[in-house]
Amino acid sequence: MADVYQEALKLHEELKGKLGVNVKTRVETKDDLSLLYTPGVAQPCREIHKNKNNVYKYTWKGNSVAVVSDGTAVLGLGDIGPEAAMPVMEGKAILFKKFGDIDAVPICLDTKDPKEIISIVKALAPTFGGINLEDISAPRCIEIERTLKEELDIPVFHDDQHGTAIVVTAGLINALKVVKKDISDVSVVVSGTGAAGSSIIKMIHNLGVKEIYGFNINGIVLKEDYDQYDFLTQELSLITNTQNKRITMKEALEEADVFIGVSAPGLLTREMVKGMKENPIVFAMANPEPEIKYQDAIEAGARVVGTGRSDYPNQINNLLAFPGLFRGALDVHATKITEEMKLAAAYGLASLVSDEELSETYIIPDALNPKVAKTVAKAVGEKAIEQGVIHN
Question: Could you confirm whether 371 is annotated as catalytic?
Fold first, then answer.
């Protein structure tokens, strides 16, 4: 691993950043200048002034995304500041271009004030077709995203929340096929109720899972403790733990078919997995060390195991979601990304694994599969049109 770090450092130093600006047309003559800039450029300006939606026709807006971060929750490094976050945001922009053919611009903000971040992003919005919020700590990220979704007419998406949830949901759809269990019949334990965990809980609830137990550092989420929670946990308390049981995670797992972890290393033991219902499914996604090691989960009897790592089967990788999601939203000039669009993305992703291919070690397509972004984009775009959340 040390070699990877040193090689990456050398590459970044040689490149002086991973992004540049590419001009789409020639600029070689005075005629070229008159078309690309003054006086010719005045005409598209006039057309956009007549009808603001013409900005999608005459500028890059329809194929551009701002990747916005304040550097407060970068990878596993934590609050390292906007400058140190830049390499990650540049990397995200590369993935947008490579897998979704979307022009993405890294924007790292020197403020942690949610109101100020909201104000800045709103002021930037006319330039971009979408906003991807990245590596902003919870619960601030949720407040920021919700406000921007309400006040902007372009898609706003916090990938750390919803990208993870989309891929987990797609994996769960196929994992349940492997073990021949129905979505409405299973119980799920989710360890971690922050940005990713809360979105996972809401999404699998929308999928049709009736019993979900949510756990965080304070234990199980309960309705009767509603007044002690922040706004996000309060929302989760209304859709989880339907019988309001004050139980440990070990006890909850005895009733569970599925474990989903977005929390901390080593929280799930072999004994806990052995105590789960028959043919358990385990998604242990804490990075870089999961809640239980892959081999330990398999040896303890887990039928299907997913992780956040690329060196084991069934990698739950956000790359499977966000390029296609934004591609679909941009293609139809969507005004927002709805819960239904996210669920459509999950079903689209799951559909890429055929019944013949489906197995314990193959429930989710490879992140480099060229069909992924196109399939997700089609599902998302069709759902946006169906819901009418598009610019006419």
Answer: no
